[in-house]
Amino acid sequence: MNWRTPVADLFGRIFRRKRLNNELDEELRCHFDLLVDRYLERGLDPEAARRAARAEFQGVELVHGPLRGDPFTEVFGGLFHDFRQAWRSLLQSRGFATVALATLALGVGVNTAVFSVFYAVLLKPLPFEQPGRLVMVWSNFQKTGGQHAPTSGPILGELERRSRTLQSVSGNWVTTGTFTGDENPEQVYVAMVTPNFFGTLGSRMAIGRGFAQEESFGGRPAIVVTDGLWRRRFGADPNIVGKSVRFRGADPIVVGVLPPSFRIFFSPDSIVTSDVQAFVPFPDNIYQNPPTLYYLRVLARLKPATSLARAQEDLNRVAREIRGVYGDLEEEKLTFTVAKTQADAVHDIGPAVLAVFGGAAFVLLICCANVTNLLLARSSYRRREIAVRLALGASRIRIVRQLLIEGFVLCAPASCAGVAVGWAALRMLIAIAPDRLTRTGAIGLNWPVLLFATLVSTAAVLLFGLVPGVEWLRLDLMGPIRQIPGSAHRSSGRRLGAALIVAEITIGFMLVTGGGLLARSLRNLENVRPGFEARRLLTFQVALSPWLYAGDQLTRERDWEARLAALPGVEALGATSHLPLADAGNWYGPFRAEGATRVDAAANLADYRSVTSGYLEAMEARLLEGRYFDRRDRAGSSSVVIVDELVAHAAWPGQTALGKRIEVEHMTADGFVPMWSEVVGVAEHVRNHSLAKRLRGEIYMPYEQSPRSPLSYVLRTKEDPLSLISAVRRELRALDPHLALSNVRPMESYVRRNLAPAAFTATLAEIFAGLALLLAAVGIFGLFHHQVSRRTREMGIRIALGANRRNVIGLVMREGMTLTMIGLLLGFIGAAAGARWLGSLMYGVSPVDPLAYSIALVLLVAAVALGCVGPALRAASANPVDAIRAE
Amino acid sequence: MSDMSDPSEIMQGTLDLLILRALQAGARHGLGISDRIAQVTHGVFVVRPGSLFPALRRLEQRGWIQGSWGESENKRRARYYRLTPAGRRQLELEKRSWHKTVSAINWMLESEA
Fold first, then answer.
1. I want to staple A684 with a disulfide (CB 3.0 to 4.6 A). Which of A456, A481, A622, A870 is the partner?
2. What is the total count of domains within chain B?
């Protein structure tokens, strides 16, 4: 069938109607002429003949009625009339219209705002060429339990050579580097990459080019900078390409500047921050690294039209082949996981966003239930009107159409208001959102979001239009006309209304319970001891690389710590290579306990931290056994480590760790070198990565035996830690004007940032719970108010027959509580099932936490009681005489 | 002689039946139809345009009659209607049901009180 046919048909019908009317006019004119002829024949004069003919034509205008029986006209004729009528009837009941409009606008608004976040975080495509083909390849060490782990240079080479589904495979590693060469040294995150990195991403340079093969692995030094760095540090110099800059103790040549839109997106546990501002090729040949030096994050591009499943199969084969080549990897049972870059980047925040989205959808459902209830209440007032119209010959299609139009007239302004509410709500949402959400990209109202709002509103129109319609179309015509208004009757509408209230209470209970569980989780997380004391702790980072290059870093670092310690207000201080909860870079690797076999050794991975002697004490990390580092632990003296309780337990279960020897990797001038060291202390575990999880054990090494740059300093202060910042800056400038402070923050801000996702979900869940309670109260008020006003006569008679006020109030309250009990029972089942789904968002709370459930129960019963009280009092005040006379 | 100028006051189907019957002998225009009805019913039913044209329109939409433009005996343009095969069947049907109704009513009226 030609697509044009239905369209032509539609126009045909519109014009045919016109044509038919023209033909009718023509026919009537002819008929008139014939009549005139006849009267003339009978001998009347022309004037009298015309008059006589006109007399016969009385009533002819009725012929021009709507042409019944034509389905097109039936559905579309008189649309304007229906719109006007719907608008008028809405104006007539302003109270109803206001409540319905506000409720709908609230529902649409909340959902629009939350969907904006949902879209920006989970759905919006990454700004790269064909982003659907970008994947991450993670290594899994089944023996060591390491999932989602980086890989090593040789494995990267094998992946490139052996895989048949990957078009290009790139590796990267993020570290820090300092631009020097002028008065303002600046420390930035820098990504070391394989030369094909930008080609794999599919991003073009704004100026210049990406890396060439000969610039990698110690070839000609080159650097690519981001738009932000180019503008800030190099004054947006258009001729920057080809110039050399002073960076990390070398003079690389700028070969390219990235466009402003460029951003990389990796999950936070990949330790590849989006704040990377410079890219350099790896300075050494990574393919010749030890095969078990795992630090590379692998980004790859699938060949066209390759599914993720096929790529996974392919990499399973590659892993089998590699295990056959490298004995170490066979022991560790290496496998690969391939994941879409986009999904991988948000895998940690995804559940929170989904839960919030689900909560918002529940709020919308309650809003819809409320508005439907209002419409049902209103429609029952209109039963007589509809029945009369049906009896007078209005077709059912016509009535349904009018209902839909009324739904539309209600929903269209509500949707517009809803989008406005959504816009405002989104501002607030972004203000409280954790930076993980906003970092992923701009969140805003855009076309997909508006499309979503439109879909929601359209669904609402259909729902609100048709639900009352179903009742009306089953209407027995004579019933409502004969019916005594105000008499109690059990209509399907009332049953539906009750069912909606039960549904509202069910959903409300689930939302309030969810809010309670998440609030309790947040409280538990806030009370977690992270393994140190975060209060009154100032932190900042200093890149010591210039001292490292000069070779006098140890003495100068000691000098620097002495200056800091002399500042008034400083109680204790120390420094570490990696600050807990900072999520900027990590250093971890395998360790081997003395006496363990090689296979067992592979089972142990730990975070490595190079710390100065005062660090653990300044952090107030508790010592469980042995001693802290002190002045004895110098470069050249015997190699020592402090391990945490997790490492101690894993390596020597049931024994003391003190005096035992352990092989750990030290940072030396030659890179990472495994070295046997003696355990001198056991410290409490520090939650380096998340307040909610104990990820890995820790091994601390004395800075002087394993020097690294940059160092993060922690200053335990007497007063507000921020008051010391200017003094610290002054000292550093006095000591070495080439060094820069960065990331100056109180420790508590890292803790807060780690709490932010939980705080975000808990806050939203509480808002949703509050809305649910309010809406449930409004909904039950609406239903009972309506029922009571329809049952005035019944109440009047009851009172006349001797029922006292208390009985009548009890009657109404009892009905309300019956509905509530059913709703609560269903809600309990729903909440218990749904709480499991919250899963990873809960911390230290059982999915059937009695406190959360009891609070939800009390709050809902209170909300329902509040909703019932008004109507109950009104029922009780029914005057028997008025009530009966009202008929 | 009563002037039943508004046939809608009698049973709804009656006018349709009269029109269909008037067209059984051949095509007629509107005035021809009302003339024929007035003539055959000895002036009991005089169908005026206000009733005639809605009825014609209805019958045409149901597909029982079909109209086409032609020329009247005194050389004026007029729309002629003829029965369609469906119209013929409908006429037979209505005739039968009418006879049944009339007989039933007659039996009732002529029965012993």
1. A622
2. 1
Question: Which tens digits make up the pLDDT trace of A842-862?
Answer: 888 888 888 889 998 999 888
Interface test with A, best of B31, B35, B68 (most A CBs within 10 A): B31
Give the H/E segment covering residue A623: strand A623-626
CA proximity to A501, closest of A358, A371, A370: A370
Domain coordinates of chain A in residue numbers? 4-71, 78-125+349-483, 143-332, 494-528+753-887, 544-739
For residue A546, say if its preceding peptide bond is cis, omega within 30 degrees of 0.
no
* ipTM score of complex: 0.84
Question: Is residue A145 within 8 Å of A406, Cβ to Cβ?
Answer: no
Per DSSP, what are the bridge partners of residue A337? A138
The pTM score is 0.69
Are A657 and A549 within 8 A, CB to CB? no
Closest CA in chain B for residue A25? B53
* Alpha-helical runs (H) found in A552-604: 553-565, 598-601
Cα–Cα distance measured from residue A500 to residue A494, given in angstroms and rounded to the nearest whole number: 10
Q: B76, A59: Cβ pair inside 8 Å?
A: no
Is the backbone of residue A333 left (phi > 0), alpha (psi -120 to 50) or beta? left
Instruction: Specify the pLDDT at position A225.
Output: 93
pLDDT tens for A86-95 read 888 788 777 7
- Nearest chain B residue to A41 by CA distance is B74
A698 within 8 A of A647, measured Cβ to Cβ: yes
Question: Residues A36, A38, A41, A43: what is their CA dihedral angle, to the nearest 10 degrees?
Answer: -60
- The per-residue DSSP string of A810-837 comes to HHHHHHHHHHHHHHHHHHHHHHHHHHHH
CB A238 within 8 A of CB A202: no
Determine the residue type at A208.
G
Q: Within a domain: residue B1?
A: no
Residue B2 in domain: no
Tell me which chain B residue has its CA closest to the CA of residue A20: B57
Identify the CA nearest to A717 among candidates A757, A747, A676.
A747
Q: Can you give the CATH number for the domain in which B36 is found?
A: 1.10.10.10
Distance CA A430, CA A786 (A): 40
Q: Residue B49's closest chain A neighbor by CA?
A: A57
Amino acid present at B31 = L
The minimal CB distance from A34 to the residues B57, B67, B72 is found for B72
Q: How many CB atoms lie within 10 A of CB A528?
A: 16
Q: pLDDT of A324-377, one tens digit each?
A: 888 767 766 788 989 888 888 777 777 888 888 888 888 888 888 888 888 777
A615 pLDDT band, cuts 50/70/90, is very high
Cβ pair A24:B53 closer than 8 A: yes
Checking DSSP bridges between strand A661-668 and strand A278-281, what pairing results, if any? unpaired
Q: In Å, how far from its chain's centre is CA B16? A: 5
Task: Tell me the chain A residues in contact with residue B48 when contact means C-beta distances shorter than 8 Å.
Answer: 56-59
Domain range enclosing B75:
7-110
What's the gap in Å between the CA of A491 and the closest CA on chain B? 36
